[in-house]
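quick one, 1423 residues, struct below
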Amino acid sequence: MTMEDDLQQPSTATEELYHTNLLRHQATELLSESVLPLSSHIGMLENEVKWAKDVWQYMDNVKRILKSLNGAALSPDDVTFQSHGDNTDKESASSFHERFWVKLHSDKAKKHLEHIMNKDENSTNRGNNHHRFDFEFPGGDHLKVSPIHSYAANGAGLTTSFANANVVPTLDLAVLMPVKSKFEEEDRDDSGDRDDVGMIGGKDYLNGRYFDKRNILAVHVAKFLSQKKQRKTIGSVHLVHELDGDYRKVCLILTPPLSSDPSQSEKQPKNKSKVEDGSAKKKKKNKIRFRVRLVFGVQFDGAKNTPDNNTGWIPSARLFPDRCNNKVAEIDGQETTNNPTPTYNNSLAGDLHFLSNTQILHSVTVSAPKAFTESWALLKIWCLQRGFLRGRDTFTDMSLGMSLAYLYRSKMVSSRMDSIQVFTVWMKFISDQDWLGDKDQSKKKGTEVNENTIRYSAHEGYQDLNIMSTRGKKYRAGFVMPDELSTEKQTILNCIQNRLYASDIKKQSSTTGIPEDVPMTLLESFKLNTDSPIFLDPSMTVNYFGNISPSFIQELQNEAKKALECIHFHRDNSSEEASAHRIDPFRQLFLENIRFWQRYDAYLCLELKDISIPNLDKTNANRRFWGFDAQDRGCHDSIANGVVKVLNMALGNRIHSLRLLTSGNGDTKGPSNNAASVDLGTTVIVESDEIPMIPIRHSADSAHLGYRKNDISRNKEMIHIGLRINRDTCHRLVDRGPPADDTKGTSDFVALWGQRKAQLRRFKDGAIVHAVVWNEPDDNKGHDDFIYESGDKVGDIVERIIQHILWGHFLKCDSQLSLNVKFQLRNLVSLVEGAKNENTDSDSALIDSAEGAHKSISSAYEKLATFLKKNSELEPVVGLNESISKLGLPLSIDGVEPLSPALRYTACFPQLPHPFLGSNVTVSKKISGAISNDPILIQIRFEGSTKWPNDISAMGAAKCAMLIQIAEGIEAMKEKREPGSELFDGPMNVSPTFIDFGYGGYSWRAIIRADQEMKMLKTLHNPSPEATALLQALTKNHVKKSLHHFTVHGVTSKFPAAGYVVRLLNRWLAAHMLSGQISHEAVELLVVSVFTDPLPFDTPNTVSSGFLRCLQLIAEHNWLKKPLIVDSEGHIHTEDRCAILSQFEEVRGVDFQHGPPMFIISPIDRNEEGLWRPSFTQSLPEKVVLGRLSALAGRSHQYLMNCLKSGKDSKSFTWTSIFLESPDSFKSYSALFRVNHDNIVDSTCSSTASDLGIQKVDGILKTPYRRSMERLPLGLKAFRRTAYKNLNNTSSLDSLLYEFKPVDEAVGMLRTQFGQYALFFYNEHCPDMIAMLWRPTTFQWLPFSAMHAEFCTPTDYQWEENTLVTKNSNDILRAIRCALRHVIVDFKVLDDRSIKDSTTTDEVVQKAKRKLLEDDSSDDSDS
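---
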C-alpha cells in the first residue's frame, strides 16, 4: 500500500459513513410513506390507520357470512357458468371445457366430465354414481376461517399501494376445510357414520383430487358471496386462476363495496340534493383501500407430535420428495410414469401449514416488531421493482417473509439491528449461498473440467452436459427454518419427518440394500429430487422456495450482488467497481423500475400451439431432455421449464442469464380500477401483477376467460423469453463435445444438437471429438432467415443456436414459427448494417459490411500515418548544414491523430473506395465526380521546436505554409515514384487551415495541431475576446476532440454494439429532421453513458437493447435539474462530482432557466480555471429542440416497448414507424421548403416515404443500409462518371469535388444568417425537405432603430411606448427563398405571421375611429 493510499483511506471511510447515514435517512423517509400499520388485532400497533376498524369489521362480516353457508353435495357440475341444458348439440372437448370456471385435473373429475360429454338424455340423474365425482360439503359451520400471513402477523409486510407496485393491499384470509376422521378412507357409503363432517380425506392426495375439491368449493363459495343479498356487505367477488404461482389452486378476491358503487345502489332516494351532498362528503372514502384474498386449505393440528398426525390426513411418506402422488396425464395422449412429483407434493403440504407459518411470522414480529416489519417492507419494494414478487416463478409475500424470519431465528441478525442492516444481511445471505450447486464444481470429484482437460482456442468452447443437467445438486446449500428457541441442527434432528425418512432408508437397507445414488437424509433427498432451491419449514414437508426455478435464483443472486455493491459504494473506487455514476444508491435500490422488459438484451416469443409435446408424435420419439415433469408441474410449467433447461444446456456461457416472462412483471404505472363509476363486480381487473381477476357476476359485455389461461390449446398463449448475452463468449464459433471415451456424454451431446449438426472433427491438439460449428449455413434455415455482417459479436450466433434448438426439440414440423424464430427488433440493425450474402466478391463486401468498411478506412489510416511520419523524418543533406525530410518539411511529424467518426466505428455511412483517389476497388460501374461523404479528418502534430514564430498571425501563416509544403512534397514524391506515394491520387486542395487530398481510395482532410500556439495564447496576461475565443476553439478542435476520439474508440472496441447504437441513433435523429441540432460528439457521449454507466441495469450487449436504453435516457433524464456525467474510465472523483453539481446549479440559476439546456460533462471538460463546462453541448441542442427531442424519444421508446410486448411484428406495431415523420407532425412547423430532387443522393433515407424493409433482388439480400451504400458512391446524377477498372481517367481528377453537399451548405447558411429568427430542421441523409419554425421572440414589438431595421415593419393602429416596429415575416421568407433559389422547387407557409392590412379589417378601423373620438373629446374638455 502506497502513501497515497494511506492518505485516501480516511476520506474514503468518512465518505462511506456519510453515504450509509444518507441511505439510512432516505430509507426512513421511504418507510414512513410505505409501511401500512394494520393488524388483525385492533389497537396492537401504534399509529394504526384510521380505517383499521373498517377492515376488522369487514373481516368479521366475511367470517359470519361464510359460517352461514348451508351444506351441499358438490361435484364438477357446480363449477359451470353455463348450464348443460343450454346446448343439447354435441360439442367439441375444447368448447365444452370452456364452460367451466376452473380447469379440473383429477382422474375422477375427468371421468365425470367424459361421462357428461357422452351421456344420453336419461343419464342426468345424480343417482348414477358410477362415473360421478360427488362429495359432501358439511356447511360453513365446519369451516375454520382465520387471518394468515402479514395481516395476522401484526401487519408485518403490508405496504401502501405506493410501495406495492400500485396494487391495492391484499389481506389473506384462510378458509380451512375439515378433514375426515377416518385415516386412509377413500369413499363413505350412505350408511356410514353421519357424524363424520369432514370433506377431505382418504386418498384425496392422489391424482389431483384434493385440488379439484378445494377449487370446486372455492367456486361454490364465490357464487354464494356474489349473491345479490350479500353485495352490500361483501362487495365484488373475483376468481383468480392461480395462487402464488401455483396453477392447480384458485383463490377468491373480495373487494369491499364503495359508497357510490353502482352495483350497490339498488334504490335511488327521492331527495337528489341530499344524495349529492352525501356523495360530496364521502368522496374521499370512494377509494379501494384494501382487498381480501380467500385462500383455501385444510384444517391441520401440527401440535400433535405423532407420526400419524405429522402430515394431516396424508401418510407422511407420501410427502417425501421422491414419491409420486399424481399419475394423471396433464397432456392428453402422454403416457403416465412413476417419476417423483416433488412440486405436486409441496403444493399439497403447503395447504396444511397456513396457520403454522403464520405463527412463525408472528413470533418474529413479537421479538423484533419494528426492524422486522421495516426490513420486510424494504425487501418487498426492492423485489417489486424488479418483478421478483407475486408471480409465477417468483417470491410470494409469505416466502419472502419466511426468508427474513430465518435470519432472525438463526441469529444472523438481531432485534437491535435497523432495517438497512437487516436488508444488507439478507442480500449477502442470498448472494453468498450456493443454491444450485454450480459453484466450484470443477473441484468436485468426478466432475473435473479445467485447463488440463482439453486444449482449445478462444473460438472454441467445451460443453459438459452432465454438469449442466445435474448442476451439482448434491453439493448445493439447503436450509431448514429453526423451531423457536432451537437451532437449525436441532430442528432437523428432532423433526418427525426426517426421522421417518431415516427409518424408511434403514428398513430398505436391511432388506434389499441401498444403491449409491440414493440420498441418505431427507434434506439430501430434497436436493437431488428438485431443481428449486431448498428452504424447508420446521416440519420438513414444505419447501418455501418450491415454486422458484434455477433461472430465478440466478437473477436474484445477480441483483443481490449489485445491491451490495450499491450499498457499499463510494465513488473513488476503480472504474470496474464504481459504475453507479448516474443514479444514487437509494434510487437504484428502491425507485428504479427494472422489470422483465427493461432487463434483458434480447427477447423472443413462442406460441404454445406451436410447441410439440414429447411422445405425442413420432418426430419426438428420441427427445429426452424435457417433458417428463408434466405430471408434476403441469403442462404450461413443464414447457417453460423445458425451454429454459434445454436452452441453458445449449447456450452454456454464451449467456449470463435466461428467463421467461412471468406474471408480476407488468407496468407499475398502470392505473387501478378505483373509479367509483365502474361496477367492479362485472369487470375483469388486471393490475401490475398481470394476474386477471375474473368476476363471478357478469354483465352482457363482461369478459370471461374461464380456465383457458392455462390451456395449451389457446392460440394466443405465448411464452416470452429474455436473454442477457455474454459479449465475451457469444461470438464463439465452435462447441466441442466430450472426449471420445465418454460414451454417455457423447450420446447426450449428439442428441442435443442432432446428428447432422454434431459431427466428428479433428482439432489442432489431435483430439477427434463431436463438435458443432456456427460459421456454416444451417439446414433448417428458412427462406427469409439471414444473419448480419459482423452479427456474431452482438448475438447472432446465440440467435442461431436458439433457432436450432427450438426447431429440433420444441416446435412442430408444420409450425410457421419453426423456421422463423428470431429475436424481436433484430432488424433494427438493418439500418446500419448489411446482411451476409453468400458468394459475395471482395469489392461488394464493403457495401454489405459496415464494420468491414470501417476497418478498411482504419487500415488506410494506419498506412497514411506511417507514410507521413516516416517521410517527415529529418535526414542530413550532403553539402549542407541542415537536415530535411523527403516531404521537404523543416520539422518531423510526431503523430497523426484520428478525429473522424469513421475511425472510431460511428459513421452512419462510411466512405467506400473511390477509383479516382488511388484505389483499385470498384464497387460500381458508375462513380460520382462529387464526393458527398465527409472527408476523413486527421490532425498532424509536429515535434516541439523553437522554430515556430512567436506571433499569433505568423503562427497561422506558418501552419498554412506547412500544409502547402506537405502537398508539394507529396507531389514531388509521386513524380519520383517513391514507395507509398502511389496511393495518393486525386486533387489536393489547400486552404489556410486544412488540406484535402485523396489516399488509398478515400478523401482525407488534415489539420495541423500546434501546441506552441495554444501555449502562446495561455501566456497572454490580458487576452482579448478574440484571443480567448481562439484558444477555446483550438483547445476544443485539437485537444478535446482528440481525447474524445480515443474515449469513444475504446468504448466501441470493448462493446461491439456501441458503434451500431451510435449510428442507429444518428439515423433516428436524422429521420426526425434533427440533423445538426445536436453534435455527433454529444450523441456519442449519450451512448458511452449507457454502455459504461448502465446501472441499475446491466450493460446492453445487443443493438436493440442499447438503442432502447439511449431513448430511455434521453426521455427520462431530468435535463433541467441534473447534469449528465459521463465517466467511462473512472477519472472523475467525488470532489470533482461535487464541484460539477455545484457549478451546474450556479450556471442554471435559481429558476433553472440558464446555461446549456443539455449539460453533458466528461473528464475532458474541465478548463484551465478548474470550471466544468460542456464542450459539445454548450450551444446545441437549444431548449426547444431538447424538449422536442425528449418527447420524441419517449414516444419512440414506448412504441418499441409495445412492439416487444406484442410478441411479433404486427401491422399495429412495426418498428419502422419510429424512423418516419407522419404528415401531421409536419403541421407543427411554420414553413416547409421542398428540395429539388436533383440535389438528393439517397432517397431511401427519406423521413416521409422511405422503404425500410429488407428486399431480395437477384438472390442478394439488400438491407436499407446496403441500398444507401449503393447509392452514395453514385452521387448526384449531374456528376456521375464511368469508372473503368484498369483505366485511370487522369484528365478528370482536377474536377473531382470533395464534400459536395449543396443542401447541407444551404441549411448551414440559413442557420447563420436567419438563426436569430427561426430554427431550421432537415434530414442530412435525405434532405428532401427543409422545415422552419419561428422563434417565439421573433415577432415581439420593438423600438425603432435604424441600425437594426432589417426586416422591420411598423405596427399599425397598435402603437405603444417604444413598440413601433416588429419583424416582417414576408420579408424574412422572401430572403430565405432567395437564398434557397438554387436548391428548392416549392415552399408552403403553415404559420402565417404577416401583419394584415388594417384598412381591410372592420374591427381595427372601428377601434381607430373610437380612439380618435376619445382624443377629440379629451381635447374639448382640456380647452
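The radius of gyration is 38 Å.
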